[in-house]
């Protein structure tokens, strides 16, 4: 989960957002022989990037993005490393498109990067129905089925199960240290982290930062996936945690069922770990609030955690541990996690 406006994150002194015409001129410097017939702002102009969609005389489209902060520049750099690692051979294994890097040019104090435009529209968690969820499950399975060698060859991180477990424990312990996490949740999370069966999984290539907004879609399903800056080898459950937050009946099950069918294997603890990761996003939201000294965020996180504990306190049939299979969907937990996504 990405948070905007962190304390101590430098914002570049760019003044007003760069105009589409300025960005178009920059793009022609970045990509040889690029001709621009039209330009329009992409996004509000107040986010992490100055962005514009550029139309070429031949009717093709290009996207240029200029970071507005050091954090955005770091994310863009990591995304470029991942996009370069995703060779044509690797991309041919995916049933959707991935952006292609076309060039860059200096834009003091940073740079502008030009990409091709992947077809499709963005969606939201609330707009996902069961057929689209199934398409997303298949798309995630395709990512996880990629050979791990290209990630290692690119020097990208590789996390073993024990390292994924330690990362989860670290979030839990830091959140516990605030004194604001209900004891029932801490007990639930502790039981999950102490259950060795839960952490017996085969690491795979993962996107690492998936959310509903990562997908581009059309009426037929997923057309593209964006935001590859966290590409690594790790826990497949990480890429499915976001769908736990859906409030639409059957959506999480549709995504998980399609995922398992597409992969041809069954990680019996996948949904439990995904649920744990989703719940720990609330702990991360709390930590973000304490680290930035935002009373508003802390209060919101505390309210979300209280709602979550009310949902699971008496739900002895739905632990995060591996003993009870299969695990039913917790509708109320999904509702609070969906609220957490809207909060960021």
Highlighted features:
single chain, 344 residues, alpha+beta, Phosphorylase Kinase, domain 1, Aminoglycoside 3'-phosphotransferase, Chain: A, domain 2, 2 domains, five-stranded antiparallel β-sheet, three-stranded antiparallel β-sheet, 11 helices, 10 strands, 14% strand, disordered N terminus
Walk me through this protein's architecture.
With 344 residues, the chain is of the alpha+beta class. The chain has two domains: 20-118, Phosphorylase Kinase, domain 1, CATH 3.30.200; 122-343, Alpha-Beta Complex (Aminoglycoside 3'-phosphotransferase, Chain: A, domain 2). It has eleven helices and ten strands. The protein has helices at 20-30, 70-85, 88-91, 130-144, 149-153, 161-176, 183-193, 251-263, 270-291, 295-312, 331-343, and strands spanning 38-41, 49-55, 61-67, 101-107, 110-116, 121-122, 204-206, 215-218, 221-225, 232-234. The protein has a five-stranded antiparallel β-sheet with strand order 1-2-3-5-4, sandwiched between helices. It has a three-stranded antiparallel β-sheet with strand order 6-8-9, with helices on one face. Strands 7-10 form a two-stranded antiparallel ribbon. Strand 8 and strand 9 form a beta hairpin. Helix 6 (161-176) packs across helix 9 (270-291). The termini are close together. The relative contact order is 0.13. Residues 1-9 and 323-333 have low confidence and may be disordered.
Question: Which secondary structure elements does this structure contain, and how are they paired or packed?
Answer:
Blueprint: H1 20-30, E1 38-41, E2 49-55, E3 61-67, H2 70-85, H3 88-91, E4 101-107, E5 110-116, E6 121-122, H4 130-144, H5 149-153, H6 161-176, H7 183-193, E7 204-206, E8 215-218, E9 221-225, E10 232-234, H8 251-263, H9 270-291, H10 295-312, H11 331-343
Antiparallel strand pairs: 1-2, 2-3, 3-5, 4-5, 6-8, 7-10, 8-9
Helix pairs in contact: 4-8, 6-7, 6-9, 9-10, 10-11
């Amino acid at each position: 989960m990405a948070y905007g406006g962190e304390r101590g994150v430098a914002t570049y002194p760019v003044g007003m957002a760069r105009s589409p015409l300025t960005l178009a001129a920059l793009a022609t410097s970045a990509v040889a022989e690029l001709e621009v017939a039209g330009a329009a702002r992409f996004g509000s102009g107040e986010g992490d990037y100055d962005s514009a969609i550029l139309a070429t005389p031949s009717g093709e489209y290009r996207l240029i993005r200029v970071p507005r902060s050091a954090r955005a520049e770091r994310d863009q750099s990591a995304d470029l490393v991942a996009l370069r690692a995703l060779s044509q051979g690797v991309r041919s294994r995916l049933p959707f498109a991935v952006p292609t890097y076309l060039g860059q040019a200096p834009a003091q104090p940073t740079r502008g990067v030009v990409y091709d435009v992947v077809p499709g529209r963005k969606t939201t968690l609330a707009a996902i129905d069961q057929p689209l969820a199934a398409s997303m499950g298949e798309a995630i399975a395709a990512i996880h089925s990629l050979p791990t060698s290209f990630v290692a060859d690119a020097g990208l991180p590789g996390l073993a199960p024990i390292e994924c477990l330690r990362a989860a424990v670290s979030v839990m312990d830091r959140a516990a240290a605030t004194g604001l996490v209900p004891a029932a949740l801490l007990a639930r999370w502790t039981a999950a982290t102490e259950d060795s069966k839960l952490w017996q999984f085969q690491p795979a290539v993962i996107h690492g930062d998936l959310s509903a907004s990562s997908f581009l879609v059309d009426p037929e399903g997923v057309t593209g996936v964006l935001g590859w800056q966290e590409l690594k080898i790790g826990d497949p459950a990480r890429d499915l945690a976001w769908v736990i937050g859906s409030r639409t009946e059957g959506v999480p099950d549709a995504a998980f069922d399609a995922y398992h069918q597409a992969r041809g294997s069954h990680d019996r603890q996948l949904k439990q770990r995904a649920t744990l990761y989703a719940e720990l996003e609330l702990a991360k939201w709390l930590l973000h609030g304490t680290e930035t000294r935002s009373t508003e965020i802390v209060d919101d996180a505390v309210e979300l955690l209280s709602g979550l504990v009310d949902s699971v306190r008496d739900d002895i049939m739905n632990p995060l541990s591996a003993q009870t299979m299969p695990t039913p969907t917790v509708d109320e937990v999904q509702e609070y996690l969906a609220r957490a996504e809207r909060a960021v």
